[in-house]
Structures are given as C-alpha cells and as structure tokens.
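fyi for ur records
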Amino acid sequence: MGLTRGVLRRPVTTVLVVLCLIVFGLTSIFSAKLELTPEMEMPMMVISAVYPGASPDDVNELVTQPIEDAIGTLNGIKGVTSSSSENVSIVLLEYEYGMDMDKAYSDLKKKMDNLTDLPDDVDTPVIMEFNINEAATMTLAVNSATTENLYNYVEQYVSPEFEKLSSVASVDISGGQSEYIRVELIPEKLDQYHLNMSAIASSISAANFSYPAGSASWEARIFP
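which gave:
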C-alpha cells in the first residue's frame, strides 16, 4: 500500500522514472553487440618445430618430450597439450588468466634458446602467441579422377607442406579412406602347410617396420 500511495501522490515523478527505464532499456538493447564468435581471453602460446624426414615416434621422443621437459619449470602454465606428427612437433601452452603474456613470451624464448637437447637437423623452434579472436580457419577440398588413394596422397604430401608453415597451428584431414592391405587366406594351402590364421597374423606383425608415414599424437597436462 505504501508504494501505491507514493505513486498516486507523485504521478509526474512516477511517469518520468518509467520513461527513463524505458529509454535506458531500449538504448542498452540496440547498443549491445551481437557477434557470432564473441571475444574471449585465452592466454596461449604455440611452439612448433620441424624435424625433416622424422617419423611421428622420433618427433615425439627427440623433439616434443625435450620441449615439454624444458617448459615444465615455467611459472603460470595451466596446461600443456602436445601433438607429434610426421616431420612436425606442436606444443600448445595454456597460461593462467591474467598472466603477463609479454613476460611469458620472454621467459619461453629464453628456455627455447637454451634448449640444446634437440637433434641438429631440427629447425629452430618457432613461438607464436595464440589469439583465438584472430584465429582463422581455412577449408580446402581436394578431388582427383586419376589418383587412386587420394586420402593417402593428401596425408603424405599435401598436409606436411601446410604443417611446415609457421603460421599454421594444425592441419586436420577428413573424408576418404586410408590405404590398407586385405589378406585372403586359402584354406587348402593352410592345411597343406599346417598353418592357421594366428600364425599368418603373427608373421605379418613380425615383418612390420618403422617408416615415416601417418601421424600420431600425445597429450600431456602440467599443473603447477
């Protein structure tokens, strides 16, 4: 009842207050930004290193792991995600919010300059500050009427060329099928040589060897 009495006693003031609320409300609505991807603060650094001719396992053991060990003592790191593929090692550092990124870059640069455990063939690691607000994505479609294994061709020849670029954070391939070998066994021959499927599978596995092809990824988390 007290609010009602106040409104009835001061009708002009009440009308002005309501009009002010309407004006400020409409102004706020029309001045608010509508963005498909709003700006976000995600303090991150990316370290990329190229090891020409190396397999994913060699890249992980000789490049990625030494870099992870070197940056493990830095302050302000919230987490580390690494990816090792053919010829290329990528390490993503996520920092705590509010971290001074100029100082973080300087400390990281000193660590990389003093890193002497990398093989001589490894190119100098490149450090990039990852800004999600400026991140760009490019999609390429590949089609060929003459190439039979198009997926493998893109994976072995096209993708590594893009990964060598310092401004490219990652390259993902989708669609198509990777090359595989199908082995069909003849039951009569198996009986003749007294073999079974397990023996054939073991022989094929034993003949396996390491060759720089494909990709492999490892992920590690470091919490201070």
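Residues 2-31 form one domain. thats all i got for now
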